[in-house]
């Protein structure tokens, strides 16, 4: 879906509104991850995805043809630049929050796998000279969508 606009001034205001709304949504997602509540981000996922797709499409159009926004007044274009800078900062924040959550999750999976392996290696044998029989190694299946 593309933004409908007749000239640069008509295109910039919806882009500012879109960018600011995306900034709000991504900031809320980052905050949810920072507070260790990633499930709270699920409620905004559909809207974020839809708006991000429109944003991607519109920024690609403007990148290919800067004339689409050049006719907008300088104050309007400055607001768009500021909104974009704020959006970039929030994206970086979200990236850090998601990376931290990923590291914690990977650490938990690794700790669980090591504990399972340690438990399997403690199998007891019988008799005075018995050695613990080692259980065969098995794989742990991970859900890649998490």
What does this protein look like?
This protein has helices at 8-34, 45-64, 67-70, 74-121. Helix content is 68%, strand content 0%. It has a domain at 8-97. It is rod-shaped and about 90 Å long. The chain has 4 helices and no strands. Helix 1 runs parallel beside helix 4. By secondary structure, the protein is mainly α.
Helix-strand layout with pairing:
Layout: H1 8-34, H2 45-64, H3 67-70, H4 74-121
Helix pairs in contact: 1-2, 1-4
Q: Largest sheet, described in full?
A: none
Q: Which value, in Å, is the CA radius of gyration?
A: 25 Å
Strand tally:
0
Enumerate the spans where pLDDT stays under 50 for 5 or more consecutive residues.
none
* Structural class category: mainly alpha
Average pLDDT works out at 82
What percentage of the residues does DSSP assign to strands (E)?
under 5%
Shape: rod-shaped
Approximately how much helix is present in the residues?
55-70%
> SSE order, as H and E?
HHHH
* Straight-line N-to-C gap: 29 Å
Number of helices: 4
Give a brief description:
By secondary structure, the chain is mainly α. 68% of the residues lie in helices and 0% in strands.
């Amino acid at each position: 879906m593309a933004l409908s606009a007749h000239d640069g001034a008509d295109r910039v205001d919806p882009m500012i509104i879109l960018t600011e709304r995306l900034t709000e949504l991504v900031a809320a997602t980052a905050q949810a991850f920072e507070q260790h509540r990633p499930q709270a981000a699920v409620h905004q996922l559909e809207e974020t995805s839809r708006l991000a797709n429109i944003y991607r499409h519109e920024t690609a159009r403007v990148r290919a043809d800067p004339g689409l926004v050049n006719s907008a007044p300088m104050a309007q274009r400055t607001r768009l630049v500021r909104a974009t800078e704020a959006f970039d900062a929030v994206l970086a924040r979200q990236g850090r929050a998601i990376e931290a959550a990923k590291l914690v999750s990977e650490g938990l999976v690794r700790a669980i796998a090591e504990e399972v392996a340690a438990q399997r290696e403690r199998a007891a044998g019988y008799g005075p000279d018995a050695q613990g029989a080692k259980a065969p190694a098995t794989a742990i299946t991970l859900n890649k969508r998490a």
